[in-house]
Design brief:
Layout lengths: L2 H4 L4 H7 L6 E2 L3 E4 L11 E4 L4 E4 L5 E2 L1 H9 L4 H12 L22 E7 L4 H9 L4 H7 L1 E7 L2 E9 L5 E5 L2 E4 L5 E3 L5 E5 L2 H10 L7 E4 L6 H8 L4 E5 L4 H12 L4 E3 L10 H7 L3
Parallel strand pairs: 12-13, 12-14, 14-15
Antiparallel strand pairs: 1-2, 2-3, 3-4, 4-5, 6-7, 7-8, 8-9, 9-10, 11-13
Helix pairs in contact: 3-4
Length: 283
């Protein structure tokens, strides 16, 4: 598939193939939850007539390839075209069994965890490799989660939070079985704070030698107030947030709360987040 061919694909068809269900359908546009980020109100608008999209939460928009860049967290057009092609044609040439998911709103009541095992499924390991995450790092901090939604079985990479819930990710799905922060108290003076667990895994891949600093993963910036008591236990906080308005606002809120915070996002200022920096680097 090339760019010209991709433009003939309806964005609504692509989104539904990878598990996005429209929240609202109008004659000229559809509204979706932007599952590639923490979107609680449908803010992803797809113009049916123009076959374009607009994310009102971030201000970004464009065509189907631009949207794939957001969903797959990459600027590599060839990867996006490959994933678009695979998604559209998966019924004839399936790649992974978890491609068949067809949900967009994930709540604790909808997701039933059926089995927790070591991270070993080839499809999940391949997804981690695509995101440039060290497999040993992922196996140390994550599990393979089998879960059920409306009598259908799926599996994903699972990252556990302090309440025992799981952040769930695979190539075509982003959900959770209950939201909370995740903390790792290593007894040191410094704490590293991340928006999501792929940011944390990216840092651990880049800096495997750092086993002293404590870790706090928000699992959504909305959880920032929950993290304050843990952060206050440390003399210094290093924030590895996204280079967007939400990330900058989170740093400002920490400063207002009196947290001694250093904004580490300046080290990857040319990239949206730490994982995209990792994927774009030669490390």
């Amino acid at each position: 598939m090339n760019i010209a061919q991709s433009k003939k694909i309806h964005i609504t068809d692509f989104l539904q193939k990878i598990g996005y269900v429209p929240h609202t359908k109008k004659e000229s546009y559809w509204m979706f939850l932007a599952l590639y980020r923490d979107d609680h109100d449908p803010s992803l608008k797809v113009d049916i007539n123009r076959n374009t999209w607009k994310d009102f939460g971030t201000g970004r928009g464009g065509g189907i390839v631009d949207l794939a860049m957001q969903i797959y967290n990459t600027n590599d057009v060839s990867i996006c075209l490959k994933n678009i092609s695979s998604a559209i044609n998966f019924a004839e040439t399936p790649i992974f069994s978890f491609q068949k998911q067809n949900i967009s709103v994930e709540t604790k009541s909808e997701i039933e965890i059926t089995k927790v095992t070591a991270l070993e499924h080839p499809a999940l390991l391949q997804y981690l490799q695509e995101r440039k995450i060290n497999i040993d790092v992922a196996k140390e901090h994550c599990k393979q989660i089998h879960y059920n939604i409306k009598d259908k079985n799926y599996f994903a990479i699972g990252f556990q939070n302090n309440s025992g819930g799981w952040e769930l990710r695979n190539k075509y799905f982003k959900g959770c079985s209950g939201k909370d922060i995740t903390t790792i108290d290593r007894g040191g003076e410094n704490c590293l704070v991340f928006e999501g667990f792929f940011d944390f895994l990216s840092y651990a891949t880049l800096h495997p030698e750092n086993r002293l600093d404590s870790v706090c993963v928000l699992n959504t910036v909305i959880n920032l107030p929950k993290a304050l008591p843990f952060l206050r236990k440390h003399k210094k906080t290093s924030a590895f947030f996204d280079n967007d308005d939400a990330g900058r606002t989170a740093v400002a809120e920490l400063q207002v709360e009196g947290i001694n915070v250093v904004d580490e996002s300046t080290k990857y200022s040319e990239y949206k987040d730490l994982n995209l920096y990792l994927c774009s680097s030669n490390k």
